[in-house]
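tool_call predict_complex ligand=2-(butylsulfanyl)adenosine
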Amino acid sequence: MTEGGARARIETLRRDITEHNRRYYEEAAPTISDREYDQLYRELAELEKKYPEFVREDSPTRRVGGQPLKQFAQVTHRVPMLSLDNTYSVEELTEFYARITRLLPQEKIPVVIEPKVDGVAVSMLYENGEVRYAATRGDGAVGDDITQNILTIRSLPRRLKGKAPAVLEVRGEVFMDKHGFEKLNAGRAEQGLPAFANPRNAAAGSLKQLDPALVAKRPLGIIFYGTGAVEGVKLEKHSDLFPLLDGFGLPHSERIWSASSADTIIKAIQELDKVRHDFRYQTDGAVVKVDSFAQRERLGFTSKSPRWAIAFKYEAERVQTRLHDILVQVGRTGVLTPVAALDPVLVSGSTVGRATLHNEEEIARKDIRIGDTVIIEKAGEVIPAVVEVRKDLRTGSEKKFRMSKKCPECGSAVVKDAAQVAVRCVNAQCPAQVRRRIEHFASRSAMDIEGLGEMMVTQLVKAGLVQNVAQIYTLDAAKLSQLERTGEKSIRNLLEAIERSKTRPLWRLIFGLGILHVGETSSRELADHFQSIEALMNASANELQRIPDVGEVVGTSIHQFFQEPHNRELVTRLKKAGVKPTVESRKKSDLAIGGTTWVITGTLTQPRDEIAEIIIARGGKVSGSVSKKTNYVLAGDEAGSKLEKAKKLGVKIIDEKEFRRLLESSS
Ligand code: IVH
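tool_result ok
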């Protein structure tokens, strides 16, 4: 790979992974499997290792997870919530144990093996036995306050039993009971609501509800597996935690294993694999942790995860079925996506009849033919994937797939994009594209117009009432009543929802326009930077490309979009129709910490690498030495030469109290 190629690939991976993180953490609606995600992540990590000059501070390899949601109050974690390194291979697991043995030579290193609960991470703080708060992980440093939702979990005590310590921050995973999940989905299907893809998504979706009464109806449970801040009780090792949790009435997993060698770890993991399907909660792996806290401290952390633990993930469930056809769907930007039509088959608890095939090259690479017997994999993700073809079962009647040269929807010619992968229908008026653009504009993650979903959009486009997003705002009761199955009440609701959407935040409008390559993150950046749609529309390609998180590809795409007279016209029409987006001022946290460089020195109440994590998670940089480029020196007790140097250079020095205040005020 050339240097330029590596740089471009790093940029693409960074953008894609950020978007997948957002879908996973914020929307609870991932579109790729964990395995595919892990592959992308590894590729990025490896490229960054090889080309450190292209590493950016905001790379997903340096961040922990999603951004906190806007609706909930925010909680700054007393100890950051990190994630774990994970692996699918026994060799890497053996290497993990070998590595810690190298780091702590001639010591016995007992480890604990626990189920990896596939749910949503939470941190709960009890003070003198009373719940202070429960929070999501968020970006690792700051999460959402979801106390009211968590308190609906029946197995969770509001007050700790027994003699409670002054401070106990317990960490665990909220899950949806497997049977409860199936019942919930069956009920949703009856009401015509979309099914949750898997118990984890259902748990995440439940916790995002703003109304705790709704959450209370969901069959949620919780399993605790660790601690954050603790005062008033001394724990020497992790395995001491479980009897303690029992005493407080806090639930933990029913089985844990201990081991002191790679072989016994592997044996425990195999045993867990045999029994885990009987648990009430879904598991996707095992977590191996060094038991002794003293040893953990000496092993320390990498920039993102502890060296003293690793997650081993079990392979996703695979089943065999017949692929009887390959259909072609047309997306919002005209991209034609082949989809496998399968003989319905039960996998990971749900019936699957479709699998994504991504593109023509992928079909050719895997040599997938119509009529093939295939192995599909579903790890709980939304869309299952074809992972293998049983070529040994071929009869000779299987047919090769060829992407049609015409759009299956409008018959127009199709072209390959610059990267020669995606095939696109170039007719901007293609009914499929028109529908998808309108659906996207109205979707929950864009302008959030309730009631304007796929079915309604199809009707509106078919009736010729809406051909572009501006025409949504020309709808009235008379027009809507022409449609089938629309009652007075639903018409009123839809018109009200349309009205409400007029004043959505600017980034939602930008995102809703569906500009190629412009995801939610870039839309937020663009709204922050330009503060108006006109300013964005009139920006030069150069100006656009200089914005962080935009870059060359996205910048060019935006510029091209607004070079098209009909797109400019669309914006004018939206404005005329009364769409007046609100502009949010730049996030305070970005102003306070994002883009600043810090040096941490002296003794603080929290380990320095944890504080560094907090700063990095908020977009700051941490450096080991003070220079003119340093913006802040965070000085604890007994700070020495670095503090002196900061004074000499006139760098702003702040103490821990001030730092905490800054965190609070900027969260
Ligand atoms: S220990 C420093 N133990 O898996 C992080 N995590 O990929 C310590 N998880 O963030 C985490 N079951 O959300 C731990 N028994 C378990 C777990 C577990 C599920 C989740 C947790 C964590 C993620 C790591």
